[in-house]
Description:
single chain, 261 residues, alpha+beta, Arc Repressor Mutant, subunit A, Chorismate lyase, 2 domains, six-stranded antiparallel sheet, two-stranded antiparallel sheet, 31% helix
Amino acid sequence: MTTASRTKRQAEAAPRSAAPTPSLALYEQVKEHIVRRIQSGEWPAGHRLPSEHELVAQFAISRMTANRALRELVDEGRVKRVAGVGSFVAETKPQSTLLQIANIASEIRGRGHDYGFELLAAERIAAPADIAAWLDVRLGESLFHCLCLHLENGTPVQLEDRWVSPRMVPAFLDQDFSRMPPSEYLVRHVPFDQIEHLVDAVLPTPEQAERLAMGLGEPCLLLTRRTWSRGIPITMVRCLHPASRYRLGSRFRADGNPGWG
């Protein structure tokens, strides 16, 4: 078999989800492939990663390229290498626990309650001044926008107002959000390496209060989140929760491992 034929067969054998992003360097494509699986939960902490030899065959790359991808993931704290054994998904560190992106649907179902979702808007519009500043884009630049309502046992518990960069997530509005809400889609399919969380106590606007089925004078908790990939903003979302129905928090053990229950 010729070298060209062998390379073609290796490329065809690679999983569809491992399709590289053409604009990235080869080692970054391998990193993106691994990070996607870690963030989606497909490869949990302790999962053994493909070896350098397997990555070389799967992506038709050099051993040096595969080594660089794994080495940088180790430096970023995502992967742990054990000499003579292999590479493994690293345990979540305390700061990751505090800054993790929660899946509200899973939280609600985990309590044994019914989860409901309503997509109120999904559009592509010009960025207003405050959003342009948050996402570091020009005023009026075209962005994706969606507005969603999350319900627990039929009662609204979160109003999600999200802005997404078309540059980073060009297929965002092509998704069926009735099957997978926007936040879950982004976590599963768009690798990120930085998260920012801000929490404020606010009063809702009349429109927000109506959508959340609450009184105008009742306080809300506002969680503002931004995510980045290689320094480029991916999304900015404001999640508004009636304070009487929802709490924001985190729990972890003193040894740095997450605790549940």
